[in-house]
Amino acid sequence: MQTVERDATSAETPPASGVRAVPDVHLGEAHLAAARAVLDEAVGRDNVRLAFVSGSLAAGLGHGLSDIDLYVATTDDAPRPEVSYERQGFVVQLTPVSHAELDRIVRICRDYTDTATDRWQTGLSDVELQRAVRFAIGTVLVDNGSGVPEAAQARLTIRRVLMNRSAYQLNSYAEDALGALQVGDTLTALQTSLIAVELSLECVLSGVGDVYLGRKFHLRRAARSAALREVLTDVWEALRQPADLGCVQSARRIVVRRLLLVSHLVAHALLGGWDAPLDRVPRFADRRAEGGPVRSPWVTPVRFSDAWGMSGPDIGYRVTEAMVRVWAALDGRPREELLTAARDTFPEDVPRELLDAAVTRLVESGAAVPDGGPIRIEDKEGGVRS
Q1: Taking the CB of residue 41, how many other CB atoms lie within 10 A of it?
Q2: How far apart are CA 169 and CA 164, in angstroms?
Q3: Average per-residue pLDDT in the chain?
Q4: Are 142 and 277 in contact, with CB atoms under 8 Å apart?
């Protein structure tokens, strides 16, 4: 099969990771010509309301057996089967899109409208989202008044949907990891925290502008992203299960560190990648040994069109963006360094008293651990497992 290769976003990952990025394989003019030939022969331009090419090739993730995915909404909306065609050395998969499905694509991609009380986009399943994502990353061949938004708007909306959807979903896995540790179920704690890492990776990939849907390309997408260079080694480590799955102390240590990494990735994606793709995710630091305040690993920030929120096993409330910025900086560093970090983060100087008050509020709400305090894992009887 002919392919078009381009350099990956990052030609090489950090040396410590030992992983080299795979060259991107994109849609080329030959692919589009084959798709247009099938469109003309199998449907006819006069009967096309919207036609676009998408799939793994559209995201630069093509491989040796990648099809050209051609999506077509016809004017007559007549039912049609999915059919594969061989054209010009390629396999073109023609997938019909009904008017109802087209309306869903338009509604999803038009704008990010989720609010704290109406989370319809956040609640979409993979199946419901797939064609909207495919449209957002695809190449339009024909648009005869379909009503779809401009490509830049569709991609912005989908990035926001994928970011907040991942953040919202992973909270339940963080809660499951905590609950499992409370009863000594290391296997479930390790597995659910691993799923949380995968969801945070999907969130941050969307935040840096790498849009796709599905787990199979996570490693490849992470490896090619220049924006993830400083956290990639931590991500690789977090995606591996330990050899000794039954050791309670080891599982607890791994789960807590994983979820601190998760909160780091998600916070930076939601804060820095919301309006435009983030060009750099800062290095992950676990400085608990230094005795400063620490964000709770069991808590996740979420971002809607009208509000920010914090969600955890025992909390769920609205917060401000400023509070999320303070929370994201709580990695155990001393208060003096925290004040310096705040000055770098905020456009205006933050008085020490205001920063201290913000940290106190986060601690009181259960979103953070006070200076020198341990990250506690209480069992069902209220005791603490050491």
Answers
A1: 10
A2: 8
A3: 90
A4: no
